[in-house]
Amino acid sequence: RTSKRLLCLHQPSTTSSRNSSSYLIRASTTAHVSKIMTMLDNKKALSQVGVPLDQNGPATSSPASKRAKTTCTNTSTETNPLLSDWSSQPFHIPPFADIKPEHFQPAFEVAMKEHMDELQAIVDNADEPTFDNVLLPYDRAGHLLGRVRHVFGTLSGSMNTDEIKKLGKEMSPILSRHTSSAYHLPGLFDKIKKVYDQRDDAALNLTDEQKRLVKVVYDNFTRKGANFSEEQKKEYAELLAELSSLHVAFGQNVLVDEETFEMVLKLEDMVGCPDSFIAAAKAAAQERNKADDEYVLTLSRTFVEPFLTYADRRDLRESLFKSWTQRGQLHPDRDNVKIAVDILKLRQRQAGFFGCKNYAEWQLKDRMANTVEKVSNLLNDVWPRAKEAANKERIQMEEFIRRNSSYSTDGEAGLDGGIQPWDWRYYAQKANSDVDVTAELKPYLSREAVFQMATDVSSKLYNLKYVERPDIVSWHPDVVTYEVRDATTDELVAIFMKDDYTRQYKSSGAWMSEVRSQNGNLPAGMDAIEGIPIVTNNNNIAKADPSLLSFDEGTTLFHELGHGHHGMLSKTTYATLASTNVATDFVELQSQLLENWLEQPVVLKQAKHYQTGEALPEELLEKYKATLKLNAGFDTVEYLSCAIFDIELHQIEDYSDFDLLEFEKKELERIGMPQGIVLRHRPPSFQHLFASSHYSAGYYSYLWSDVLAADAFGAFTESGDIFSKEVADKARKYIYSSGNTVAPDELFRRFRGRDPDVQFMLRRKGLVD
Predict the structure, then answer these.
(1) Side-chain-side CA neighbours of residue 137 (13 Å)
(2) For residues 395 and 414, is the Cβ–Cβ distance under 8 A?
(3) What is the C-alpha separation between 36 and 588, in angstroms, rounded?
(4) How much is the pTM?
(5) Which of 302, 386, 454, 570 is deepest in the core (most CB within 10 A)?
(6) Along the chain (769 residues), what's the average pLDDT of each consecutive run of 10 residues?
(7) Sign of the dihedral defined by the CA atoms of residues 558, 563, 567, 572, in that order
């Protein structure tokens, strides 16, 4: 079921990477995120600037008095809220109400200069390079740049107005070049390398976490070309700047297609659709000032998937589906196919700089999987099982249609052209209507009820309590802010900002991001609140009264809170290693693990009917349990085909005269794509791959993490208590709090006592007995 929700961790931002993640984290469902969404190379301020997923961010800042001496031509530090002192704000949350688009460019200029000054101070230090005079200040450098970038990333995902889009296009190459300049600053890498070469020297007495920081920073520099000649550094910096601009253009084209499209319907056009869906379409029409008898569907997945599942009008399902899968191609001025091919050519050049034969080989060197062979082995192991299951599901639907002539369209108890992609969800629901409890469950799954269940799970597992702060102003009135505190000590753990509803200027998908990352390396005199994370969850739920969720939408909410736990529970010394700054194929473990709890009867039976307050009936709960593996073949094929497409696409060594759409067609033929299913994310709108580089040659990460998550949840079930304190404490320590302080494969072994076992995932998906 996770394959339905590839949600990136962070929303893609022009300054930037899990669906996503934060992402995007993603998320399944990721696309993120662009989600994909604000993230990057799992590294530090420099590696974050100009990357697609807004994931980390330096942690500390130089004193305000130092910043006040810096001037810029447009907006002074005294009047620019991005450069001002935020101590008067609750928890030092950015003053969103005061921030205007015109504040960003001058703020970025000041912040970039300050960042380079901080790095130059490391270079200019005449003392022998040590951890304390090189790595410690390096980890602290760029705090101001990080906070400006995080605010901009937040708005780029959630309030991406025309002014923000324009600014993003302008700043993206500038920020990318700054990142390259920081990595290539003369003398800086020499000092880092000297500490790296001596890191195991007993005389240095470095802790394991300090050694890990040295290695991670050293590896980041080498992957950014620190060993290149000066000419190569210049060429590589320009390549990355061009890539950054193309990523932004790709993501913005998808967003514009989603913003400008609308399907205007009458009530009779929505026969078969649930009342809650019709109410959401009416609300969308009212927002767009349509006539009283009109309803509107947008290209938000929140509208598309329910309409494809329930609407009786096959012609309208086909029309909406084709528009949905042609995002990035809906207007000739927004040609994402060309942009994607240009990106692929640049990535191949990028791999060549490092002596790799293709981009996939280079990208995977920085991942838990490490090699294309390991990725392919996993995908090829699961694909035949998924394909077989999907073909069985299609045959069952065809038999259903033959038995029920009212669904025939060809006069011979069949469908014209057979089951098509706009038919699958509809007939799967009809064929399983005797056991499908989706419509019956929805009244018990209001947005508020599902969030309450999620926070109850959070409390039972990790002893957290969520205290709403309605007085805190954010970037939009829809956002709800919470203090997250330890339920026993009342200690502040994090600030959590939840932005649930779909709206204009908001990217599609769902993602987690951070306005501020956890940091244990604050300089003397800095307020400790600056080390407390500010974590966001972003969904795209249709706004209605009430907003009733499908089970998949509820799972998405749990998924993103899992990412949120990764940020909120982070407990590292160094900002570079904190939170979600981990390998892409590890970062979805935390989110996919939490999904499991929504499927548990002990959790679900807490749900209350939104009108009557009645508890979820036991018989409905039993019916639901029987449906957990329905359409598992379709779900897995829809996701897995994207992962195979991605890894094969990035193994190509020459993109001269490359036809991306022809490659898509031939690749699906090669793997034997079941009839009636297409890629969940077609190339022109595949933001995971092309709105950033974070998930490129890495879309397999959701399946890889699914293996880890299914196995990790097995530790809870094997204990006999899904809320086992002993297991939860280990999960908190090794999965959520450790960040990148230890290699991910070792963290999993410390939690589980062994390497992961794929059988847990196969059983969960119903792909083995």
Answers:
(1) 20
(2) no
(3) 12
(4) 0.86
(5) 570
(6) 35 30 30 29 31 29 31 59 97 98 97 98 98 98 96 96 94 95 98 97 96 98 96 96 96 92 97 93 94 95 93 97 96 96 98 97 96 97 96 94 77 77 94 81 95 98 98 97 98 98 90 97 93 97 91 95 98 98 96 96 92 91 82 94 98 98 98 97 97 95 96 98 98 98 98 97 88
(7) positive
